[in-house]
Amino acid sequence: MLIIDSKDCENIDKALKKYKKKFEKSKVLLQLRGRQAFVKPSVRRRTDVLKAIYKQQIASGKIEA
């Protein structure tokens, strides 16, 4: 559960903005989307390896992002 500390004089819009940022940083929505369908461990590993290879290629300068 997300808890937002708000002062009495703080605007509701600012409090809502803080809540949205905190919610986005907690990555709850990404976890929910990931759990909608089962992904085999071998497929998950393969995608992780492909992401790592892509990041390495960007870092070495072979691919421009």
From TrEMBL:
Protein's name according to its UniProt entry: Small ribosomal subunit protein bS21
Domain of life: Bacteria
Keywords: Ribonucleoprotein, Ribosomal protein
UniProt source species: Sediminibacterium ginsengisoli
GO MF entries: structural constituent of ribosome
Classification via InterPro entries: Ribosomal_bS21, Ribosomal_bS21_sf
Gene (UniProt): rpsU
Family to which the UniProt record says this protein belongs: Belongs to the bacterial ribosomal protein bS21 family.
HAMAP family in UniProt: Ribosomal_bS21
GO BP field: translation
